[in-house]
Amino acid sequence: MAMPLESPITFSNVGKSKWWQRGIFASQTGYVLLALAVLLVIMHFASPYFFTEGNMQNVAKNFSFVAIATLGVTFVIITGGIDLSVGSMMCFSAIITSMVMTELSTPGGFGASLFVHMAADGKTVVANIPGLILLVSVLAGLLVALLVGLVNGFCIAMLGLSPFVTTLGMLSIVRGLCYVVTNGRGSFPGGPDADYFYALTSGDVFGLPVPFIYLVILALTMAVVLHHTSFGRHVFALGGNEKAAELTGIPVVRVKIEVYVICALAAGLQGIIISGWLGSAPANMATSYELNVIAAAVIGGANLAGGIGGPLGAIVGCVLLEVIRNGLVLAQVSSYWQQALVGVIIILAVLVDRIRSRMI
Amino acid sequence: MANAETASADATPILELQGIGKEFGAIRALHDVDLQVRPGEVIGLMGDNGAGKSTLVKIIAGNFRPTHGEIRFGGNAVHFNRPIDARAVGIEVVYQDLALADNLTAAANVFLGRELKRKFGPIALLDHKAMASRALELFGELRSETRPDDLVKQMSGGQRQAVAIARTRLSNARLVMMDEPTAAISVRQVEQVLGLIHRLKEQGVAVMLISHRMPDVFAVCDRVVVMRRGEKRADKPIHQTSPEEVTALITGAKEAA
Ligand SMILES: Nc1ncnc2c1ncn2[C@@H]1O[C@H](COP(=O)(O)OP(=O)(O)O)[C@@H](O)[C@H]1O
Ligand SMILES: [Mg+2]
Prior knowledge:
The structure holds 2 protein chains of 2 kinds. Chain A is an all-alpha fold. Chain A is 68% helix and 3% strand. Chain A has one domain: ABC transporter involved in vitamin B12 uptake, BtuC (Orthogonal Bundle), CATH 1.10.3470. Chain A has 14 helices and 4 strands. In chain A, the strands form 2 sheets. Chain A has a two-stranded antiparallel ribbon. Chain A starts with 27 loop residues before the first helix and ends with a helix. In chain B, the strands form 3 sheets. Chain B has a 6-stranded mixed β-sheet, sandwiched between helices. In chain B, helix 6 (157-170) runs parallel beside helix 7. In chain B, a hairpin with a 2-residue loop joins strand 4 (68-73) and strand 5. Chain B has a domain at 104-163. By secondary structure, chain B is of the alpha/beta class. The interface between A and B is large, with 34 and 38 residues. The complex binds adenosine-5'-diphosphate and magnesium ion (MG). Adenosine-5'-diphosphate is lined by residues 24, 27, 29, 47, 49-55 of chain B.
């Protein structure tokens, strides 16, 4: 009965899957990346203007404007959830950041005496510590995002409400708050730190738009977190089989709350960056962006059923959408068609994935 | 076989149940159940639907608290409030649906919730290599041809069982309870699962197997326990009974043995 435990096990009846059947090659992200490469080649021949430095910077900047939020929502999608409130959250964080920045920079404003004083000429406002106002106001913007994320997470993980309904409600609540706190007028960054703000949100470093640099750093961080930490492992487990995750003792409630908070923070940061580029935070800013963000994540291979997704896919999805948009502009196709085409691409990407997984 | 039995009969029980009863409101799911399980012993737990098998397993696993009676494990009285309490003393359950995450690898599933990590300053990163090699070792002990890096999604039923059972080996469980492990798999894979149960037995682990399949129970179990309407109706060494008698006990054609 007893077999010698030392004898090596042989894999007689189970073949190892081939390299093209594993990892990125077998994923939706892989072939969407391939489609993107083909598209770039076509664009190169179709328009001599496409690969110019100016246009490339434009593309890089534009997709960075949604990609950071897409990274965040990808966390939620991997757990099998959804967050429809990202567009509203972008706006809310941007508004709060601008409001706090302006308030702290206005002599006589709430708490302003701690941060600014009047110069000798009696007209110029001077920061006591340059950059401090910017830091505080960005933290304030991220803090409100964190609170909204906590409420989302609490309702979904602790009260057991559906993510779709909870975040749909939150979309409306937060957008409403954007109008309420600014009386519908939105807000504007101002004060002595405004120039730093513009530099840090819409400037360039070595010819690269700064949002693009943030994106690369955050995407690399996300890759490490997802694939090399227990938290990341638990995020995937939750999307793969929530009951199993629970039975193995994973703190399911905590992980769920954490992904909604991460998503909210990413959206908040994204909104703050967009408002720096716009130079204002109108109350209707980023309206319906949640659709672009979720579309990009899904095109890039995140599965709404949960368990699959990653930063590369999120970025590839955003780039693909932006290149197509850019191509349509260069080809002078009406911008009305862009919206319709995005929908077609979403369905195509998911359809191709379905056909591919049937073939293997 | 006979030798193994006398040896285990002498050993002190790892699990002892005394007068276990459980009521859900007016429903009496279990009544006055006594049971002893020794290290390395494989017990077949049989009974019709609603007989109380799952409730008994859940009480031992810490999902429910018994309304009456006492549980002793390893000689000490134990009171489990949550499944983690039971796991902490060495009781593991292999669930019917196996509780595996399909989108993760075999090794990731084995270590789910107790990942091995390496510290890099303030951050702890997963130690993929250590987990893969430990998982391969466990699959080797179970004689299962399962690769640590393969996704569970691509695996056969037998391999999935091996992954679920390897989880219990990781924690050095002393009692493993399996709820219908052979219900949804092919005949060849049933062989594999029964093999896995033999491996556990060889390593001194006590196994409680819930099954409706008479051939499986008679192939691997040392003892069969029959439940009916929440009561234990029979508790016999496997060679002193027969499939016919067990069937009669399950259906109630024979009251007790
Ligand atoms: N959580 C529960 N609440 C109420 N009644 C239950 C619960 N779990 C089991 N029961 C009842 O206890 C009895 C035994 O069920 P169970 O242990 O699942 O039987 P088995 O696993 O042998 O089919 C059944 O009558 C069942 O309806
Ligand atoms: Mg049952």
